[in-house]
Design goal:
345 residues, binds N-carbamoyl-L-aspartate, alpha/beta, binds zinc ion, globular, 13 strands, 33% helix
């Protein structure tokens, strides 16, 4: 039985670090595990300008513990009236690594998102021209579409159109949750990739209702049926360069989760690598972990691979029931359970 996993230091291609006190509470969980991370721009107000992204990047770096080397990669939040030249400038100045499409009202802090994909065609044209990746929250949000079908509908209604109109555009279909998404990514060119979260590899929709309603397993896109989880596990561990690590770690205070209208999001940053290692070991694919965690992402983004090596050892990680911060508690993914792997510090 394997006792150690040695891989290049991974990157996390989808992270919510929040702002203010919570930024300080959560950032170092990510910075301890990952060299770089794609930072989601869904703050209030959202990060829609080069200046706002630069300022947010400084706040993140200030909150990183001494001794950790961590590079936040900033993302522009696309709105209906985004100026394509702002995107071009942000890319040229090395501030924007990507731009994010949130369909309006599809998820947390997405009210300012895009109401109709055609409204951002001038932005997509510039992005395709300069090679800036489009990150998509791939769900339609029409109230007449069943919540479990929203990702599959997004492929038909939006993604297929974008790919036809911008065949060169680099697209990351983020936090995919369905067999349909896996098939879509596999059947398109090398410019179409996807991230997969640790929780969508681990839970199916039953987990949200196990023994009563369980808000800590509620996130968006919502976990789907077992057959979809199995398709995601197969994709992640396949060795295909189209699939890479993106945790979608999304902390919310415990009171905001355990509420009559609980927030979507799972805080998985503290044991993210241990969780992925669990899945890859169960799938007998530990040899594929390095590609998924440390190689496919940088290659897609055209960034260098990290040189540093990290070690996961076979040693129990006991995940706390909750993490207590000065202002609030946050419940981590896998709370109260024990994982077989531990990241060496
Ligand atoms: C994210 C959040 O809380 O910001 N929530 C989530 O369930 N994943 C938003 C998002 O990525 O959809
Ligand atoms: Zn997210």
């Amino acid at each position: 039985m394997r006792q150690r996993i040695e891989i290049r230091r991974p990157d996390d291609w989808h992270v919510h670090l929040r702002d203010g006190d919570m930024l300080g509470d959560v950032v170092n969980y990510t910075a301890r595990q990952f060299a770089r991370a794609i930072i989601m721009p869904n703050l209030t107000p959202p990060v829609t300008t080069v200046d706002a992204a630069r300022a947010y990047r400084s706040r993140i770096l200030k909150a990183v513990e001494e001794g950790l080397v961590f590079t936040p990669l900033m993302v522009a939040y696309l709105t209906d009236d985004m100026d394509p030249e702002e995107i071009r400038r942000g890319a040229e100045e090395g501030v924007f690594t990507a731009a994010k499409l949130y369909p309006a009202n599809a998820t947390t802090n997405s009210a300012a998102g895009v109401t109709d994909i055609k409204k951002i065609y001038s932005v997509l044209r510039v992005m395709a021209e300069i090679g800036l990746p489009l990150l998509v929250h791939g769900e339609v949000n029409h109230s007449d579409v069943d919540i479990f079908d929203r990702e599959a509908r997004f492929i038909e209604d939006v993604l297929a159109l974008v790919i036809k109109d911008f065949p060169e555009l680099k697209i990351v279909f983020e936090h995919i949750t369905t067999e349909e998404a896996v098939e879509f990514v596999n059947s398109n060119g090398a410019n179409i990739a996807a991230t997969i979260t640790p929780h969508h590899l681990e839970i199916n929709r039953n987990a949200i209702f196990q023994g009563g309603i369980n808000p800590h397993n509620y996130c968006l896109p919502i976990a789907k049926r077992e057959k979809h989880r199995l398709a995601l596990r197969k994709a992640a561990t396949s060795g295909s360069s189209k699939f890479f690590l993106g945790t979608d770690t999304a902390p919310h205070p415990v009171a905001a989760k355990e509420s009559a209208c609980g927030c979507a999001g799972i805080f998985n940053a503290p044991y993210a690598l241990e969780s992925y290692a669990k899945t890859f070991e169960e799938e007998d694919a530990l040899d594929k972990l390095e590609g998924f965690a440390s190689e496919h992402g940088p290659r897609f983004y055209g960034l260098p691979l990290n040189e540093e090596i990290i070690i996961l050892e076979r040693k129990a990680s006991k995940v706390p029931e909750k993490l207590t911060f000065s202002g609030t508690d946050i419940i981590p993914f896998h709370a109260g359970s024990t994982l077989n792997w531990s990241l060496q510090s």
